[in-house]
Amino acid sequence: MELEKSRGISITSTAMTWCYQGTQLNLLDTPGHQDFSEDTYRTLAAADNAVLLVDGAKGIEPQTRKLFSVAKLRGLPVFTFVNKMDRPALNGFIIIEQLETEFNLQSYPVTWPIGSGDRFCGVYHRPTNKVLLYTKGGRGKGATGIQYDLDDPALQDLIEADLYEQLQEEVELLQVLGEEPSREDIMAGRVTPIFFGSAFNNFGVDLFLNSFIQMSCRPIPTRAKGNPAALLPVVEEEQRVGISGSSSSSLGTGSSSSSGGSIEGLVRPDSPHFSGLVFKLQANMDPKHRDKVAFVRVVSGRFQKGMKAKVARTGRTLSLSRPQQMFAQSRATVQEGFAGDVIGLTNPGAFAIGDTIYAGPEINFPPIPSFSPELFAYMRCAPNQKKAFNKGIDGLLGEGAMQVLYSQDEYITDPILAAVGQLQFEVVQYRMKDEYGVDTTLEPLGFSMARWVIGSWPAVEAAGRMFNTQIVKDRYGRPVLLFRNEFAFKQVMAEEGDKLGDLSPYALPPGS
């Protein structure tokens, strides 16, 4: 997207698949701006591990704080790669201190940089006690590296004197940071392995990938509700694989629920039954064909091209005949896939974010909620562009680029965009112009909170008129209350809370 190039930031999540030394890796690259933390949260629902990419010169940036809190909500192990060491960078110990201070996250440096900027020449690898010195490759070629023992006398001639002395001092300081952490500490997110390098020059990336493959979490059992034939009781399976019991307390022990013998339990990755989770929708990936792609993480079983699967939310059975995997701008047809793989499916309008698809006994994964929006604005266009405008809104709404609300007044048809951050508005306006040829204007509304009424319209009617509050409806026709601020929300709840009943800060698709 040209807007990403001009701003120098990621705006949409991307999914890529490639093989590295016999291991298939699925990279889900999420936006680096806090205004897109909702997109990050959805993408992390399909991840087994999180990689925190830190700018070596800037350290922990403000937007990283919110994104990291989103990652912690998913309970994933976190690996840290400090990038851009080929530019003047902060001392590694400062970044370690930032991680501990900002995130209460202990660090274990696996690699350590030798110099920075133009003097960045290699890294020290703690597990092997070796130094890897890099040489830049030619145009289009990767860097080459030569290993030396830390006590090899040749290093004094290969590394500048002050850098060599600094390396020896910092290696001694690294020993004070403690021994290598246990796998349990890494998997629980209490310790982050940290690596230093330059992705642009391909310095240190190989050591990161090799360590990541060895240390990272493989697909584990996933919580779901459904047919007992497809699930294992929570306690039994968690004890077998060593999953923390504290996170499963809300699910009970796999006892039968009231919905026709359905139970809450765990789906194992090696289950014979295929299941998948739709975590991202993307329109117009190929502008020439106006295609729509649903990105699906395979949760269990074996996916096969052309197989039939059912969408749990709607009960609709689909033929999955055009599966794809992406790498940069290229696509490849997928013949089969297994737990952890990410597959792109042509989306005929049948999928929504958070959908469960399955073949075999019925199951349903927990839905992915939408974040509570904080900014609201009417979006309008010229009358002669209304058809393209409505098509664009439907397309962007379907992929979760923003939330859309509507006025109760039938004569006001302009949609109300609801966003987590201001940049979402700018992206939607850019895409409406770039992909649909529609010029739009925004009229901001003076509200900062939205709450969905669980009791639906009868509860709203019982409450009657509410001051400093606007009543609108979402895409499914459900009532949403917009409040000007926290004070207005508390005032309404104090006066009409008994009649309104429960309010939710986020929305789920009907039937979830």
Q: Which secondary structure elements does this structure contain, and how are they paired or packed?
A:
Elements: H1 2-7, E1 14-20, E2 23-29, H2 37-44, E3 50-55, H3 62-74, E4 78-83, H4 92-103, E5 106-109, E6 111-114, E7 122-125, E8 130-135, E9 144-149, H5 155-158, H6 161-176, H7 183-187, E10 191-196, H8 205-215, E11 222-226, H9 234-241, E12 263-267, E13 275-283, E14 292-300, E15 303-304, E16 308-311, E17 317-319, E18 324-327, E19 330-333, E20 336-337, E21 342-346, E22 356-358, E23 363-364, E24 375-381, H10 386-398, E25 403-407, E26 416-419, H11 422-436, E27 440-445, E28 449-453, H12 456-463, E29 469-474, E30 479-483, H13 486-500, E31 503-504
Parallel strand pairs: 3-4, 4-10, 5-10
Antiparallel strand pairs: 1-2, 6-7, 7-8, 8-9, 11-12, 11-23, 13-14, 13-22, 14-21, 15-20, 16-17, 16-22, 18-19, 24-26, 24-27, 25-26, 25-29, 28-30, 28-31, 29-30
Structure described in brief:
Helix content is 26%, strand content 30%. The protein has 512 residues and is of the alpha+beta class. β29 (469-474) and β30 (479-483) form a beta hairpin.
Question: How would you describe the overall organization of this protein?
Answer:
With 512 residues, the chain is an alpha+beta fold. It has 13 helices and 31 strands. The strands form 8 sheets. It has an 8-stranded antiparallel beta sheet. A 6-stranded antiparallel beta sheet has the order 17-16-22-13-14-21. A hairpin with a 2-residue loop joins strand 18 (324-327) and strand 19 (330-333). Helix 10 crosses helix 11 (422-436). The two termini are 32 Å apart.
